[in-house]
Amino acid sequence: MRETHNAAAVVTSFVIIIVTTWLTGALLDYTFLNPGGLSFRQIVFFSPPHHSLLLRLAALLVVAVPLFMLFRKRHRAAGKYTIPPGADVLREIIKHNPAAVAVFDRDLRFVMAGDRYLRNFGLEGRDIAGKSHEELGLKIPEKWKGVYERCLAGSVESADDDYYVKPDGALEYCRWEVRPWLLPRGKTGGVIVYIDITTDRKKADEKIKEQYLHIQRQYRELRAVNEMLEALNRKESFTYDELARAKMIIDKAFQANPLAMSLSRYADGTFIDVNNAFLTLTGLGREEVIGKTAVELRIWNTLQERHDMIAKMHAHGFVRGIDTRVYMDHRGYRWIKYYGELVDTGETEDRFIVSVFQDITEQKLTQQSLLQSETRFRALFENSSDANLIIDEGRFVDCNRAALEMLGYPYKGMLLDKRPEDISPDTQQDGKNSKERMAGILDRAARGESFRFEWLHLRASGEVFPVEYMLAPIPLGERRIIYTVWRDLTERKRLELQFLQSQKMEAVGRLAGGVAHDFNNMLTTIIGYSELARLRIKRNDPLYAEVNEIREAAERAAALTRQLLAFSRKQMLEPEVFDLNRVIMEMEKMTRRMIGEDIDFSTSLDPRLYSIRADRGQVGQVVMNLVVNARDAMPGGGKLTVRTRNVHVDHSMCRNMQDARPGAFVCLSVEDEGEGMDKSIMNQIFEPFFSTKAEGEGTGLGLSTVYGIIQQHNGWINVWSEKGKGSIFRIYLPALMEKAGEVKAQSEPLKDYRGDGERVILVEDETGVREYIARVLKENGYHVVQAAGAEEALALFDTDSDFDLVFSDIVLTGMNGIQMVEEMLKIRPDIRVLFSSGYTDERTRLNELRERGFYFLQKPYVIIKLLKAVREILST
Questions:
Q1: Are both 320 and 218 inside the same structural domain?
Q2: Under a CB-based contact definition with an 8 Å cutoff, are residues 804 and 759 in contact?
Q3: Minimal CA–CA distance to 753: which of 856, 876, 874?
Q4: 143 near 157, Cβ under 8 Å?
Q5: Are residues 706 and 767 in the same domain?
Q6: Checking phi first, is residue 569 left (phi over 0); if not, alpha (psi -120 to 50) or beta?
């Protein structure tokens, strides 16, 4: 077994020497020493010069890789894996090769790769062995997938002029070759990829080509002169006329050349002659130049610059296309491209320099401007808060950081080479196929059209989100690339939906307020007269129960109108500072009785809860409505939990909660384990009269009332729900940052609210309401004068203003109640005023009433409440 391994080592070394010698094309002297001590010396090989480096490297790897795999297999089989002779050499050749080289197995998983390959694809320092492109975060373009498949089938493919996009978005020009490598039995083991980076070479070639064209233009004019000089040189003797004619031609060519030219001594640089273009360039006269040096004329900045140029000319006999900055008296510093030729007459002291100066200042400025423009564009592109992307041939070839953040990709390599439809849902909002619609847009953009439209894209997480596209074609040679700017519309769509919802709620709220006003007027009459009737009927009379039923029905209707007003945020608040925990605890007994025994009810109340300033009754209604809603969501029973806690909301939390704002808040949450809701139902739950219950089982006002009350208290609601997993309603109310003191309920004993002949002027345009109020007041000791409107009341007041109280509805036909009272106060500034209304919106001007100390009584009201209000005002 040992001899087999030794023999294999000799064969491996022999193959490596053969291929390495062929690769380098050198004569080599090797000594082999086998285990028996026999040596082979002076084995000489020669590599033909016509083989390219890439081809030699390919041959080396095609031989070496299978040998490496064979030895690996054999050593593994032997139970010990040691790198065979030659494998280290192979690895070092691949690792340090100036070309980008990578070896893959049949599943396109990395076997090994060179440093240049790892650098180019952003894989430095990463463990790549046995991993695929996808596992390393790289996407294989469709073109390369086809190449790999064909090469695994035995093909060898290459390209001399191609490019690929690096993970950072930069273009790298290259030539490449992909070929299969074979296992010992002839089976394909995988592919070897050779990428020779030609970016720098391509740039250098372009620069050389540009310089060559410059030189060609500059010396074209001298060709005739050179030909003439050669012809003269072939002649042994010249006539005077021939010499004169030659001088004339040379002088004309010299002076007529549009490029600045000069003839100077090699030894000291003294100008012997210059042409007109030189004088124009420098702004000097001929007499100022001839006999002077370029250093004296300050054309060269320093003597050292001329010495450097002379050194190059001495070494090569010429200087080609040196860019340098020179000083011109009348034009300041200019950029020139300098060409020089050493003319040697055979005598050391008679050597001259023919110089050509091309003014390239404008070109330099243009290049500088383009560079600055490109730098500015790149800065704007990369630093824009909007997503900026570039599409070429239907695929993304560049993007900025904002685009990656919007889509949720950590680096560019995960996005580049994708198509827009690859990161889009199958269909768009209009129901059209994403791929077909985008293909049409890009096709029209390639013909020069610009677009602005909305589109649905997919984040890396799979979330669908709306994007506003601004797309414009940019000419690039004979084709067009497409520049796009995206704006994430998620927040705007949310705000639009919120605004539409607000408008809808406002519209329904106005309707609800108007309905509530009319109801309140009617209910005031119904409740009032039912109370009067009940006072006149004995309790054992059958009519008493019937009248009482009428009154209770009217009370239920009044509660419904209060819900309408709460929903529309037009219910008059009676705010006080209190502890929300105490309200919940006071309601707990009633809550347990109401929800039933099949519901496991519990509370989790923060003992350090901040106080709130709110209408205690309305907050209680919020708790009750949410608990009832949770109970109805669990027809088969379940767990219902009410929690309270302090919350400090910051700006980041506000982005995820509609209507939220930063600050300290008390959070009330009601959690259930019910059926849950999907998104479509969640979007409607706060709409008035919306209900998921069967017809006749609910008013549909429970949650809309909660919404209205919370909005009126400057708070908001956040809802989480998932089908089959229950729901959580979280109410946020502004906190006072202090613990509320205990408020003990006090039962105030009833006083005698009867009047003592006080005169009351009653102004009410609803006849039924007016007569009911007048009757109650008269029967309880007050003298009442009635008026059906403001004009009638003012007429009565002008005649007799000796009244103790003005009791008026606010909303009257014609002049309203507040305007009427203002006129009365001009006559009697001391008169007391009590306003009443079924409205509580802007028409009642409640804030103004409070500021001016006027009293307000909300319709509908019972007799005791009416008498109590009148008595308290008159007693103040």
A1: yes
A2: yes
A3: 874
A4: no
A5: no
A6: left
Structure tokens at 382: 């990369």
Q: Does 517 map to a domain?
A: no
Per-residue pLDDT of 319-339, as tens digits, reads 887 887 777 766 677 888 888
296-306 pLDDT, tens per residue? 887 776 777 77
| Alpha-carbon gap, residue 777 to 870, rounded angstroms | 9
Can you give the C-alpha Rg of the chain in angstroms?
Answer: 49
CA 851/CA 854 separation, integer angstroms: 8
Q: Answer yes or no: do 587 and 716 share one domain.
A: yes
Name the pairing type of β-strands 31-33 and 271-274. Answer: unpaired
With beta carbons less than 8 A apart as the criterion, state whether 104 and 111 touch. Answer: yes
- 260/328 same-domain check: yes
Shared domain check, 440 and 479: yes
Residues 21 and 61 in one domain: yes
Q: Between 542-567 and 490-536, two packed helices, what is the crossing angle to 10 degrees?
A: 160
Cross-strand partners of 261? 356
pTM of the model: 0.41
- Look at residues 25, 54, 85 and tell me which one is the last residue of a structural domain: 85
Do residues 640 and 601 touch, judged by C-beta distance below 8 A?
Answer: yes
Residue 606 in domain: yes
- Taking the CB of residue 35, how many other CB atoms lie within 10 A of it? 11
Same domain, 45 and 162: no
* Number of Cα atoms under 13 Å in the Cβ half of residue 37: 0
Q: Is 693 helix (H, G, I), strand (E, B) or coil?
A: coil
Residue 709 shares a structural domain with residue 786: no
Task: Give the number of residues written for the chain.
Answer: 876
Count structural domains, the chain: 6
Q: Which domain holds residue 274?
A: 208-361
Residue 163 backbone dihedrals phi, psi, to 5 degrees:
-150, 160
Long-range pairs for 549-552: beta carbons < 8 A, 24 or more residues apart: 550/526, 551/526, 551/527
Burial class for 354, CB neighbours closer than 10 Å (0-12, 13-18, 19+)? middle
Q: Is the dihedral of CA 14, 15, 18, 21 positive or negative?
A: negative
Q: Would you say 424 and 451 are in contact if contact means Cβ atoms under 8 Å apart?
A: no
pLDDT per position as a tens digit, 786-829: 999 999 999 999 999 999 999 999 888 889 888 999 999 999 99
Name the residue with tokens 């691949």.
Answer: 94
